[in-house]
Amino acid sequence: MTLYNAIGSRIGTVDTDQYEALLQAIREDLMTMTADRLFDYSADSFCGYLEFGVKEYDESLRQNLELRDQLQKLPYGSSNLILRSSYQKTLKLLESFGLNLGQPSTKVQSLVVTMPTMEDIDLDPTLSITSDLEDYAESIERSNLKWSITDPELIEQILAASSPNRTSMSCNRLYLQTDSTEAPVRGVLFIENSHLLSILKDSEFQLPYLLSPSEYSNDLYPLLKQDIFKDALYEKSAEQSMQMLFDVSENISVAEFARQNGLNEWFENKSTEQLDAMERTALCSPDNTLVFYNTLIGY
């Protein structure tokens, strides 16, 4: 078992004679999880993850270092477990092993916020982290819609509300630019758009509004024409993409679309920051071509 912190820095490994006690602590902590906290990382923050390396392979022996003959009988393979701040028994036991998630690690120099990809629209919630927080420089380079944040206080607040997996299709993606020479860019983490807008409310950053699952699937599609998906005529630059996303003079904003179609529920239970973002975010063109979810979304 290997312990990593919330930005993917390796803290250390757990000795085999400590496995049983640790697994028991994990069982007890998992039993305390409630449905309302499960996908609300702002209420129960992500603080790291445990990697369970079952299939460690020795190339010279051409054998697995552990389990060997028994391996084929196992109904599982290598996996990992997200650790939450509420898992006090697990965290305290790890600390007693000399594995402290609070110890100094790689410094985050900037945090890059991007938009969801088409993959993020197909939500598949899980209790394990979908992939290690590895080097994802190409993911940032491919994105035309991104905001780089360097303020340490904002970075801390955003990371405290972030999760290693998508909690809904309304999540922004987060990438970390660090001082590590081995993995200078790490990701991907996720944060609910509503939380991000609230954190950035007094900053220079004005991000777009992301539709909720019900707004996207239940309300939007029945009101659009069948030919909403149209190929972009050319590859847009970052400047063109950003301008298009916020162009509500040529396009229809999220708020205006809701008003035109009597979707009053879109304005209910929303923060001031969400309502403001709905006014400035272009949803579709006059011919009902979706601006972000069709033309600008990445794959």
Write out key terms for the chains shown.
20% strand; alpha+beta; 12 helices; single chain; 4-stranded antiparallel β-sheet; 299 residues; 5-stranded antiparallel β-sheet
Q: What fraction of the residues are assigned to beta strands by DSSP?
A: 15-25%
Can you give the helix content as a percent range? 25-40%
Structural class given helices, strands, pairing? alpha+beta
Mean pLDDT over the residues: 83
Q: State the major sheet.
A: 5 strands, antiparallel
Tell me the radius of gyration.
Answer: 22 Å
Care to count the β-strands?
13
Strands side by side in the biggest sheet: 8-11-10-7-9
The number of helical runs is 12
Topology order in helix (H) and strand (E) letters: EEHHEEEEHEHEHEHEEHHHEHHEH
Q: Shape, please? A: elongated
User: Which regions are unreliable across 5 or more consecutive residues at pLDDT < 50?
Assistant: none
How far apart the termini lie comes to 33 Å
Quick synopsis:
The chain is α+β, with helices and mostly antiparallel strands. The chain is 31% helix and 20% strand. The model has no long low-confidence stretch (mean pLDDT 83).
Task: Write a structural description.
The protein is α+β, with helices and mostly antiparallel strands and 299 residues long. It is built from twelve helices and 13 strands. The protein has helices at 19-30, 35-38, 88-96, 118-121, 137-142, 152-160, 193-199, 213-223, 238-245, 254-260, 272-280, 291-296, and strands at 2-5, 10-13, 46-52, 57-58, 63-64, 79-84, 108-114, 134-135, 146-149, 171-178, 185-192, 252-253, 282-284. The strands form four sheets. Strands 8-11-10-7-9 form a five-stranded antiparallel β-sheet. The chain has a four-stranded antiparallel β-sheet with strand order 2-1-3-6, with no helix packed on it. Strands 4-5 form a two-stranded antiparallel sheet. α1 packs antiparallel against α3. The radius of gyration is 22 Å and the shape is elongated.
